[in-house]
Design brief:
By secondary structure, this protein is an alpha/beta fold. Helix content is 40%, strand content 14%. A 5-stranded parallel beta sheet has the order 1-2-3-4-5, with helices on one face. Helix 5 links the parallel strand 2 and strand 3. The chain is globular.
């Protein structure tokens, strides 16, 4: 009779894993900040109250403040915790290295075999990059780890940044063969306002993810879900 190892005897760290829908700007690694402050040309100096050792706790403080404010965004804005991270992702090399080091760490430290990375390319255009440049940088970074990891990219439309940008991202997703995601402040910017964008993406064969139903019930998440019921999602 064949003997089987009990699950409890298998170290979790050794199991192969799938990591789906991971934020690039929300998953900057210690190795990225090490590169940023010591190896980057020129190196970046973190604000005085931030160190490589306390970044995680500082970001959690910012996240807690965001949640206590109801997770609301103002028009054309993003959440402050992501803005803080994105200030270090405004050049081609920075995006490439962040993507590479995240991919590398997930594969080597957590045995991730399939990785789905997501980000909004227009959040990385403050210093002259185009959205397409940002996509190229992320793709190049993910590919630097080699062929031991299966990777894909999702381009995110942030609700508070408006319909015009949302449609641009849907078109870019089609052009670059990426997934398309609608995310952000569901309470202030209901999914109904993005239905034409979502419909376009679906009709063009783009794989679509929609964040709907995550906000408290007073924001009528059922109404948002009803908007999607006639789409093949």
């Amino acid at each position: 009779m064949t003997s089987f190892t009990q699950p409890s005897q298998i170290p979790y760290s050794t199991l192969p894993k799938v990591q789906l829908h991971i934020h690039l700007d929300g998953s900057l690694t210690p190795s990225f900040f090490q590169w940023l402050t010591t190896e980057r040309d020129p190196p970046i100096t973190l604000p005085p109250t931030f160190t490589k050792e306390n970044i995680r706790s500082k970001l959690m403080e910012m996240k807690s403040a965001q949640v206590s404010n109801g997770n609301r965004q103002t028009l054309n804005s993003n959440w402050s915790v992501f803005d803080w991270c994105n200030q270090y992702l405004q050049t081609y090399t920075d995006i490439k290295m962040a993507s590479y080091l995240l991919t590398k760490d997930l594969a080597s430290e957590h045995n991730v075999r399939i990785l789905e990375l997501r980000f909004c390319p227009y959040l990385h255009t403050l210093k002259g990059l185009t959205a397409d440049d940002a996509v190229n940088a992320a793709m190049e970074g993910m590919s630097m780890h080699g062929n031991t990891l299966c990777t894909s990219l999702i381009l995110t439309c942030v609700r508070s940044r408006g319909l015009e940008e949302g449609m641009k991202i849907a078109r870019l997703s089609k052009l670059r063969k990426c997934g398309f995601d609608v995310a952000g402040d569901e309470g202030s910017y209901g999914i109904g306002m993005y239905m034409d964008v979502i419909r376009y993406a679906r009709e063009e064969g783009v794989k679509v993810t929609v964040h709907a139903g995550e906000w408290p019930v007073e924001f009528d998440y059922k109404g948002g879900m009803n908007c999607l019921e006639n789409l093949d999602m």
